[in-house]
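User: Sequence in, structure out. Go.
Assistant: Echoing your sequence, followed by the structure tokens.
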Amino acid sequence: MMNIASKYKSLSGYARTNMKTYSLVIIAFALLLPLSKNGVISYSITGQLVPICAYIVMAISLNLTVGTLGELSLGHAGFMSVGAFTGVVTTAAMQDSITSNPLRLLIAMVIGGIIAGIAGCLIGIPVLRLSGDYLAIVTLAFGEIIKNIINCLYVGIDKNGLHINMKDVASLGMTNGRILINGPQGATGINPISSFTAGFLLILFTLFIVINLVYSRSGRAITAIRDNRIAAESVGIGVMKYKMIAFVTSAALAGMAGVLYAMNFSTIAAEKFNFNTSILILVFVVLGGMGNIFGTIIATTLLYMLPELLRGVGDYRMLIYAILLIAVMLLTNSSRAKLFLENLKFNFREKFSKNKSGEVE
């Protein structure tokens, strides 16, 4: 009789990816939601659940560009900031007309994703003609440009609608209105409407989009471009077209993650979405495995929570965090460590496949 392990191995790569990835997310949500509501886990960890969801979406979307497409992007936080501040403005504009918080959040995510996707398209047109280090440097520059534009942005709302200016608050010309985005101070007075459930649903949506894209005809074309661009062009694959599909999809999902993240806080500033944030997301992707969505989710969760879990060691927590990061990177690139893990997996499968009589099926 075929055992569970052999049945799992007989599935297609698409089915195996779907099964283990969706199962991980659903089980984690089913365990954490009641624990957080009943106060079993600490308030500080509960407060990290929504940001973790946002960063998981960010890491999965960046993995589409870095892992599947094979292009190094260092401006991913810029798309997150576009979605974040679009979400702040959108939810404030709909506050009187739509009273349901989940509905407002959903609409804000859709609009934030569209605006971030448009930004990704505009940036992708010149950027994707480059490759390698050149593309990384230019995406980094665009990320910083987006951050500085938002730092100069002033947005307010009154009975006459939205007022937008890039000079100062006085130039908005509002009558008894309120400021939504106040230049370098960012967005203040936000009504937090994000929830762990919304984050969970956004992760499922992101997985559905990314996994189906990767295993589709377009995904195979994107992978072919990553493996050998010249060979892909020689068989008629439109390199620019498929690069844009991956890049814009990645940007749109990052924008949706930005909305989820921003609407979890009462204040958010553009400085939060700087170069360091882009590098942090890239670390999640690299540590989880290039193109490995399952590993990316685990790496993002562990690395994001690690500084909080190490808070008890005081001033040394970031030093320990850095040392652990270096150790994990060395182990994941060690042939001996890989051999040890393979032997561990083999031994586990051998024990798992034994029936009650001790015979191997």
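User: And one key feature?
Assistant: Strands lie at 154-158, 161-165, 178-182.
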